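If it is no trouble, might I ask you for a protein's amino acid sequence along with its backbone structure tokens?
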Amino acid sequence: MDYSSSWLNSFLVRFRLSANLFLSQFEPLALLLAPLLTLFIARLLHSLLSVIHEKGLKATVLALFMRSIKLVPGVQSYIDAEKQKVVDKLQSGSKSKKEHWRTELPTTGLGVGVIEEMKDVKSNDADWKGKCSGTVYIGGSESEGHFSLINEACSMFAHTNPLHLDVFQSVARFEAEVVAMTADLLGCKEKASGGQVCGNMTSGGTESILLAVKTSRDYMKAKKGITRPEMIIAESAHSAYDKAAQYFNIKLRRVPVNKEFKADVKVIRKQINRNTILIVGSAPGYPHGIIDPIQELGKLADSYGICLHVDLCLGGFVLPFALKLGYPIPPFDFTVRGVTSISADVHKYGLAPKGTSVVLYRNHDIRKHQFVAVTEWSGGLYVSPTIAGSRPGGVIAGAWAAMMSLGQQGYLENTRKIMEVSKMIQKGIKEIPELFIIGNPDMTIVAFGSAVLDIFEVNDIMSGKGWHLNALQRPNSIHICVTLQHVPVVDAFLQDLREAVQTVKENPGPISGGLAPIYGAAGRMPDRGMVQDLLVNYMDGTC
């Protein structure tokens, strides 16, 4: 024991002498700075590797190259000037319209005369009847039928606020019943759901998704102790997940879709790690109207013990009825093991007033993580279920009125109409040789592109004919989201589309005032940061 101790002391003395002799060759300042410099370089490498891991080598190198280029005198100012030209083109005259907008209260109020002014302003809106992709889901004129019914319901409860449960008990009942009826459509009474499905109404699909993501984050933190959360989505998943990732400090991993434009389960599996809290499926996805393999995603989520959110914002009030009509709809709801939350918009195919959606959870243990409870506020004890505190009771009442007035038979008939129109549009597009349909649409969204024409030029011609379609990327394409407004105009749409294709075929090239060059350039632009800047500058000048 003494010998070992003596040997160790002798070794340490020799080591210290050798080290001091070696280090005596260097300046004291160099010895002080060396570890700090090493730490700095290690930190820099770690940051670089993290960026490469997140964005990929190609995107990282490109970003560094673009930053270097912008350091050249005059380059940044030139790029800014060119970006402003694009922003001005996108806004296309909206600045001149804003010059006449009010910036202060009138000295003397207009009284009931304000209604006439509102009618005058409204007369400048675009003609949306039958001409818009999605947008207005109720059929007919806004002054009659279902429109009149929900308008009256909203007006009757315009003064109400479900924050005050003790005062507006009627609205509290309406909300609970809208949630329960929606849950019933989505498998809550089936044994596989667990029998505890619950939820709340929100202002729209984005808020429903935001809440589902926030709830999943906090639930997984409590369940598995995850403090650096990540979620995985297909590139076809809604942009609301990007918003949620930014709001709630969650790392977002976006993966490509497969050849059928569905979420690729194998690729998603490879991305799952110890920080993964959530994977996502869409039924259907907004871009192409294609349902992701929810059953396979459910098995994946269940096997890893993570959450699975299903985006049914478009499909919630169509797929249950399409299934009853005999359409081959794959499983999509709480009957799928592994699904932990669902979002479904009532203000789309539920034909409710704008500002109504539902977020549902498999059980109360999950939903509790959605709520915010405050115990130390001088204003008293406070608890709120959703992002908004005060909420408009009028639209909740309107949603309840819409669902009750239509009933299952009403939704069944509406689904039959729009599904048939969707099939007619698909058939008509297939008969236009210059066009092709993206994937195999499962519902009422039909996306189409072209291998021989600039599809955005076709879109510009359609815009000139009064149609408001949606431009897509990866691949470049446009889509129409079929609503009841399109039932009487489907033949006119296909005729205009045939004419637009023929026009572009005979006279290729951008039209005056068209946005095809901008959409095309944005899709090809390798610096996605620049595209992001364009969008932000556009929005900043618009709202």
Observations:
- Residues 168 and 508 are 60 Å apart (CA to CA).
- The mean pLDDT is 90.
- The radius of gyration is 29 Å.
